[in-house]
Each structure stands twice: as structure tokens, then as C-alpha cells.
């Protein structure tokens, strides 16, 4: 079975049989496309990876001139290049999946996402492989990942570039209580023309996200099994709100009408924790100043690319892949051009003690004037 998908400018294909590709197709359903003939990335699931001839050891894998093999805890893969683009072969580890009808299914109780084994492998593939492979494939097309939560209204998107947790909680407030539509909770895709595209990934909602939002908790638990609810309550009590999480589609959580597919960048907010501040301070800045740190964060987010790049450079193999430094520069270039098309660019300095609710209240009060007229820059 094969499927075609499109993420903004990037077209890719997915083929193969089994529980893991089936789980991955469910995750990527919102990107389904009839026939992306310009596919730059091909993903194929195989039972056994082909032999990599004339290879040499490189980090956690082996490398040859035009391909390399790498290991992950739950899968192994081989990445190479053909005439059309990157070709990715993936082999899920059988011992991780276990017997699909046996007691191994109970392992979901130990998974903080409460996922079946094949769903957990699909999750690992998205974060440990697809993120960096798609970045390598899309940057030459003038498109890049951006670590940001994002919402849309009236055709304009707001991107909250922030450390983990802060931007997401503010985004949830805006969607649930302020009439905005969801675009991303973690990794947004933007192109050099300033168009933001919705993330295909499911939202990752932590216990801490629902702690002060009971309506969000009710929406998250709606339709879940008793075992699912019990595992959530147990981990909340035993490990705390940062150690329990659920992955859920935006459509299921918010409803179809509160999800956008793409929008023009209206404003970009770079949210920075600052111990010197005793209040939230906002000032306008320029696209270049935002693009540089944003590109660094993207490279950190698409780990293990830096490790792989270093290993390949050490054995002088796979010249078709950019080094981590080259990919960071390419990413910065795309993001800088994307931000130039945004209506406004801001940096927001937030005291370490400020809560997400305080940030949301600040943004809620500021957004109408910021998006409606030129704000006076502050030092």
C-alpha cells in the first residue's frame, strides 16, 4: 500500500505494509494528496534493510558514498538519494512490536502517551527521523520548520516562538477562548513567501496543560476508554503533570471548524525568559534578529541530525547531505525571508516567575492594537 502527501511545497510518498506504516498514515492523514508527482522524499517500510556495500562504521551506523544506515531504539533505517530526491527505507524492530495479540499490548500502560507499540514507533519515527529528513528535503524548496505554536484568524497567522510549554499553553487559550483557529502546537512549517502551513502532527497535551483548564481536560478525555482515563489519573498522581501526556488530533480536540490549513504570517512573537525582568515587556524587532536564534532552535529540534552529520563528515561519506552548519544557514535564510513577509516581528521578554496564564492575558490585551496599528518600539 502506498500513499501520497503534501506539506506546503514538499511532496512525499509513503509505502509499505504493517502496523507501523498504518499508524503513521493515520498521523499524516491531513496531508493526503492525490498525486504529488514532484515528490522529493520517499519513505518505504521494509522487513529487512538491503546490504550497504563498501560501507564504513560511522557513529551509530554505517555509511557508504550515497547512503547511510542508522540505528534508533525502536527502528533502523537507511537514507540515500536517487534521481528524484531522498529515499528512506525503514525497518521497525520486531522485538519492539512483539505479538500484536499478546500481553505486549499491555505495555501501553507504561507509555506516558498510552500508545500501542506500533503507535509509539510511529511517534518515534516522526520526531527522530521525519523531522530532519523533511527539513533536508524542503529547505532547497524555500520552506522550513519553525519551532512555534501558531493560530490563525481572518487569513493571518500568529506564531509564538517559545520554549517548551509556554507558547503551547498560550495557543490553547487563544483557540479555546478567543476565536482563533489552530495551526501548530510545536513545529510549524513556513515558506519564504511568508505562508504558514499547519503541522501534520498530533498535539501533545500534558497534564500541566489541562491543570488550570478543566474544559480542555474534558475535551481531551472525551470518548476515551476507562483504562485510558485510569492510566492518566495514576500517572498524574504518581509522577506529576509533566510526566503524563496524550497525543490527539487537532480536529478531535478542537473540532473541524477550529482548525486552519494555512495562512499568511501576521505577527511573529519570540518569547524569551529573562531573569532580569519583573514584568512582561514587548518590543518590535526585525526579521534577521528573529531568524538567527530561530534557526538554531530548529537544528536542536531535529536531533539527531547534528550527530549524524558529524559522523558522516568524519568518514567523508554522503556528500548529498548538508553539514549541520550548512543546514542551519539555509534554515536561517528561509526563515529570514519568511519573517520579512510578516506584518510585525516582536520579542517578548518574560520574567521567570510569570505563568502561561499571565502571558495569555498580556497577549490578549495587546493583540488588537499590535495587529491593527504600528506599535511604538520599546528598548
CA radius of gyration: 21 Å
How far from one another are the termini?
57 Å
Described by the principal axes of the CA atoms, the overall outline is globular
Q: Beta-strand percentage?
A: 25-35%
> How many extended strands?
19
Structural class: alpha+beta
Number of continuous helical runs: 12
Share in helix = 25-40%
Q: State the low-pLDDT regions, or none.
A: 373-379
Main β-sheet: number of strands, strand sense, barrel status?
A: 9 strands, mixed
| Overall pLDDT score | 89
Please describe the topology of this protein:
Elements: E1 2-7, E2 10-15, H1 19-27, E3 41-45, E4 56-58, E5 61-63, E6 67-71, E7 75-81, E8 86-92, H2 94-97, H3 117-138, E9 143-147, E10 149-153, E11 156-161, H4 166-177, E12 181-184, E13 187-191, E14 195-197, E15 203-206, H5 207-210, H6 214-221, H7 226-239, E16 245-248, H8 250-254, E17 262-273, E18 281-284, H9 287-301, H10 305-315, H11 324-340, E19 344-350, H12 356-372
Parallel strand pairs: 2-3, 3-8, 11-17, 17-19
Antiparallel strand pairs: 1-2, 4-5, 5-6, 6-7, 7-8, 9-13, 10-11, 10-12, 13-14, 14-17, 15-16, 18-19
Helix pairs in contact: 1-3, 4-12, 9-11
